[in-house]
Design goal:
The complex is a heterotrimer of chains A (295), B (297) and C (355). Chain A is 73% helix and 1% strand. With 295 residues, chain A is an all-alpha fold. In chain A, strands 1-2 form a two-stranded antiparallel ribbon. Chain A is globular. Chain A starts with 5 loop residues before the first helix and ends with a helix. The relative contact order of chain A is 0.13. Chain B is mainly alpha-helical. Chain B has one domain: Orthogonal Bundle (MetI-like fold), CATH 1.10.3720.10. Chain B contains twelve helices and no strands. Chain C is of the alpha+beta class and 355 residues long. Chain C folds into two domains: 226 residues, Rossmann fold, CATH 3.40.50.300; 118 residues, OB fold (Dihydrolipoamide Acetyltransferase, E2P), CATH 2.40.50.100. In chain C, strands 6-7-8-3-9-10 form a six-stranded mixed β-sheet, with helices on both faces. Classes of the chains: A mainly alpha (295), B mainly alpha (297), C alpha+beta (355). Chains in contact: A-B, A-C, B-C.
């Protein structure tokens, strides 16, 4: 922009940059630091990194927390469980979301905007409340079981809650809008004439879909998958409310480690590993989001 | 691909199924908030009894007030920071740390909330032990919400700036306005839909947050989602149904408002780009044809 | 003193020179056109004058003051943008008053100036409308009024007629000339449309690939192009490339594919053995069914384009050489496709072009 001098740029860029550095980037460094500390009773409940105990500066760092993570297979199972649940949820979101996004993209005119709004609305209306609503539906004496019993399809209530099924359902339900929107974004810019050309050249609809539509919407698929996968891996509320004793997800483990065991260094170590696991997908997602916006 | 006609029933089917899935739980909640019976499976008649119980619930009321306070403050902070950030990343193509800045603007939107919550709490604890501030409570929740709210607002601002006609800014400079005047009198008004919707949506995000608030809060501050969460862990409660319905209604109004504003701005932008049919104008001499809407000369 | 003096201005984007060592002078009160194909650098030059681009080298002097380093808001220059760039959140009066507010003009004078400008562009009844409520032609008039409101010494117009349909273009052309005469401001118009430049401007500067190729009045540019590019870009032309040789009592060009050498105008002055081109405008070509005395070229009519009052006749001469001739449509009847004709012209109607 013409004319904004260095001082102006400093304020415009600097203010938010400093804020984000202070309240997002710096905290991540602190997490790293604490993951290298030991748990103590006190406030704060961990040992400082640099002390002046011995008359000079001394670095007190330990990898004990990471060793704990490596040795106790609870954590490994929790990471893998999260990955598995999130991946399954992503796949389901894709399967369910694609037809919906496709249908919206083919709708003409102002109805399209309205439909998109309808898709986004649930996202804005309290995550917690929507998850909670599923409890009422899925529990043994809940709506779904009552409905099925009334129809005579079952005599004994189905175990629909507090297991893998309800967790997946909750994940898919909560993250579906995040899949639909990028898919819609990719689908909506597809040129109608591409399909006409494919048909003209002899491609049947299914072939046209596989050969033309799918490849061209790959960016949308990738963006949507990342937008679901990454937050879903660290999801806490859904496994806590809808999951059972054998639902092991890393977000819940983190919470328990922190609030129940009060072991901050271990919780920090869990976080560091989680960030490391997510780092690559996050950077990939960032590239996609940039490109989607530039398109 | 299939022609519009042939694929229509499939498409409509997909939409109906999809939206039923998305909205069924919500509709049921609202429905049962008016159910006189406690039980989900028994409909005992229409009643607003649970709304009455809700109003008498002190804990929920205090939590609601706290949530609204925090949301208002956080939304305002988000707006300021997010607008500055969105503008900077959109307009300044080169500055030291731009890559990191861009990352810091997008990552909070994607990263799991437990990571955000935990890292911020650790910051606040460390800070408290170094400089004695802040004590955890409303201030820390506001800071946390302002942080991811700002990232969100920056996305909206960035998108709106992308569609903004820069020639208008050049015209203002050409007419003698200094750069800061252009920013405040031309650019900001030009992106005002994004600013208003940004505030509204940051407000909603803050109201809705459970995980981050739980991490960074202190003994005295309970937000509404936290109150609902502890209540829900004890089992389904009809008062929570009533609360949920009220909450849904509030958010529905806010989000509809934001969406309507953005849509209206987009419509206006489209008409300003269109060429309306040009009536034949008057040349000299003589005035040959009247323009539409002109009084007789 | 000239109003605008540009000396040696250059602007580089990466490795390409958008503007390459351009110098020109614009006199006070002129309606000056910068003409050239897209990518020739005319818009970049315009933006340098306005202050939106800084030249890598060279100077821009307006009314004796070197403005090269001044930002746009400090120059006595205003611009009418191609997209009009009206402020969407202000009404018509607000748009026009914007520049006056920046000068801190007091309210009364501002209001009267705004009224004056509205009357000038015949938009007095539209003061309270928003830009989105106006048609394209109306928006343009507001943009013009807004740019003239501050009474700048120089008004820049970026492709002012490009977005208008043909009829409106002709009428707006007249209006612009009328307004310029009334207000007396110096206008600098950038356009790629040579018809527009020829009909509107008092002086034209033709640009190609960042360089200034020819400056002159419209008649000079059209009748005496200084290069093949100008001859071809401005209007239609028949170009004959060849080497200097002797003809009947005059200098001529030996042109490949033509049996006879093509005679040059009497005043032509070329060194021996030089290569040059002869440019002959289509309206100078005479067509006849019988061979005329003197120099003539045999050709067949390949097609006739009907343009209303005038028709353009496309010919194929020896060796497939294409020729173009303008004829009044009334007389074009006898020249249907496949007709054999003789094309000739008076030697002084041709222009020798060496560049």
């Amino acid at each position: 922009m013409i004319g904004i001098g260095p001082l102006g740029r400093l304020v415009l860029i600097g203010l938010p940059f400093v804020w984000l550095a202070l309240f997002f980037l710096f905290p991540l460094l602190i997490v790293l630091k604490i993951s290298l500390a030991e748990s103590v009773v006190g406030i704060p409940p961990y040992t400082p990194l640099i002390t002046t105990d011995g008359g000079g500066l001394e670095l007190r760092a330990t990898l004990a927390n990471f060793a704990l993570l490596a040795n106790d297979d609870l954590y490994l199972r929790a990471y893998l469980g999260s990955l598995r649940n999130a991946a399954l949820a992503t796949a389901l979101c894709l399967l369910i979301g694609y037809p919906i996004a496709y249908a919206i993209a083919r709708t003409k005119g102002t109805r399209r905007q309205f439909l998109l709004f309808l898709v986004m609305m649930p996202f804005w209306t309290s995550f917690l409340i929507r998850v909670y609503a599923w409890i009422a539906i899925l529990k043994p004496n809940g709506l779904l079981n009552a409905f099925l019993t009334a129809l005579g399809l079952i005599t004994v209530p189905l175990p629909l809650l507090n297991n893998g099924f309800s967790v997946e359902l909750g994940l898919v339900y909560s993250y579906l809008p995040f899949m639909i929107l990028p898919l819609y974004g990719s689908l909506s810019v597809l040129d109608e004439s591409l399909f006409e050309a494919a048909a003209d050249l002899g491609a049947r609809p299914s072939r046209a879909f596989l050969g033309v539509t799918l490849p061209l919407t790959l960016p949308g698929i990738a963006a949507g998958s990342l937008l679901v996968l990454i937050p879903a891996i660290g999801e806490f509320v859904i496994p806590d409310l809808l999951g059972g004793p054998d639902t092991l997800m890393i977000g819940k483990v983190l919470w328990d480690e922190f609030f129940n065991n009060r072991d901050w260094p271990v919780a920090a170590a869990v976080t560091v590993v989680l960030v490391a696991v997510l780092a690559v997908p996050i950077i990939v997602a960032q590239k996609f989001l940039q490109r989607e916006r530039a398109a | 691909m299939t022609t519009t006609r042939a694929g229509a029933p499939l498409r409509i089917g997909a939409l109906v199924l999809g939206f039923s899935f998305l909205y069924a739980p919500i509709v049921l909640l609202v429905f049962y908030s008016f159910n006189a019976s406690r039980l989900v499976t028994v409909w005992a008649g229409f009643s607003i009894r649970w709304y009455g119980e809700l109003m008498k619930n002190e804990a929920f009321r205090a939590a609601a007030v706290t949530s609204l306070e925090v949301a208002a403050m956080a939304a305002t902070l988000s707006l300021v920071l997010g607008t500055l950030a969105g503008f900077s990343i959109a307009r300044f193509s080169r500055f030291p740390g731009r890559l990191l800045f861009g990352f810091a603007l997008l990552a909070p939107l994607v990263v799991p909330e437990v990571i955000l919550g935990l890292s911020l709490l650790l910051l606040f604890v460390a800070s408290e032990s170094w400089i004695g501030w802040p004590s955890r409570g409303i201030v820390t929740i506001t800071i946390a919400h302002a942080t991811f709210g700002a990232c969100f607002v920056s996305v909206l601002v960035r998108a709106q700036l992308a569609g903004f006609d820069r020639a208008v800014e050049e015209a203002a400079l050409d007419l003698g306005a200094r750069p800061w005047t252009v920013l405040t009198r031309i650019t900001l008004p030009g992106i005002s839909p994004a600013l208003v919707s940004g505030w509204l949506l940051a407000f909603t995000l803050s109201l809705d947050d459970l995980v981050v608030a739980s991490f960074v809060t202190g003994p005295s501050a309970t937000t509404l989602p936290m109150a609902v969460f502890s209540s829900v862990r004890l089992g389904v409660s009809p008062e929570v149904n009533a609360l949920a319905t009220l909450f849904l209604a509030l958010v529905f109004v806010l989000v509809s408002l934001a969406a309507w504003l953005m849509a209206r701005a987009e419509r206006r932008r489209q008409t300003s780009l269109q060429e309306l049919p040009s009536p034949v104008c008057c040349a000299r001499p003589p005035p040959a044809v009247r323009e539409r809407g002109d009084p007789a000369r | 003193m000239a109003l605008l003096e540009i000396t040696g201005a250059s602007k580089r984007f990466g490795t390409t020179a958008a503007v390459d060592d351009v110098s020109l002078t614009v006199e006070r009160g002129a309606l000056f056109a910068l003409l050239g194909p897209s990518g020739c650098g005319k818009t970049t030059l315009l933006r340098m004058i306005a202050g939106f681009e800084t030249p890598n080298s060279g100077h821009i002097v307006i009314d004796g003051v070197d403005v090269t380093a001044l930002p746009p808001y400090a120059r006595p220059v205003n611009m009418m943008f191609q997209s009009y760039a009206l402020f969407p959140h202000l009404d018509v009066a607000g748009n026009i008053a914007f520049g006056l507010r920046q000068e801190r003009m007091d309210r009364r004078r501002r209001a009267s100036r705004v009224d004056e400008m509205l009357a000038l562009v015949q938009m007095s009844n539209y003061a309270g409308r928003r830009p989105r409520e106006l048609s394209g032609g109306q928006r343009q008039r507001v943009a013009l009024a807004r740019a003239l409101a501050k009474m700048p010494k120089l008004l820049l117009l970026d492709e002012p007629l490009a977005a208008l349909d043909r009829k409106l273009r002709a009428e707006t052309r007249l209006e612009l000339i009328g307004i310029q005469e009334r207000v007396g401001t110096t206008f600098l118009v950038v356009t790629h449309d040579q018809e527009e430049a020829l009909s509107i401007a008092s002086h034209i500067a033709v640009m190609n690939r960042g360089r200034l190729v020819q400056i002159g009045t419209p008649a000079e540019i059209y009748e005496r192009p200084s290069s093949r590019f100008v001859a071809d870009f401005v209007g239609e032309v028949n170009l004959f490339e060849g080497k200097l040789t002797a003809g009947f009592n005059c200098l001529a060009l030996a042109v490949a594919g033509l049996e006879q050498p093509v005679p040059l105008p009497a005043a032509a002055n070329l060194p021996d053995g030089a290569s040059a081109a002869l440019a002959v405008r289509p309206e100078k070509l005479l067509l006849s069914h019988t061979r005329p005395p003197g120099f003539a070229i045999a050709a067949t009519v390949s097609s006739v384009g009907y343009l209303g009052g005038v028709s353009i006749v496309y010919l194929a001469a020896g060796g497939g050489r294409p020729l173009k001739a303008y004829l009044p449509s009334a007389s074009a009847g006898g020249f249907g496709r496949g007709t054999g004709v003789w094309a000739s012209w008076s030697p002084d109607d041709g222009v020798v072009v060496t560049q």
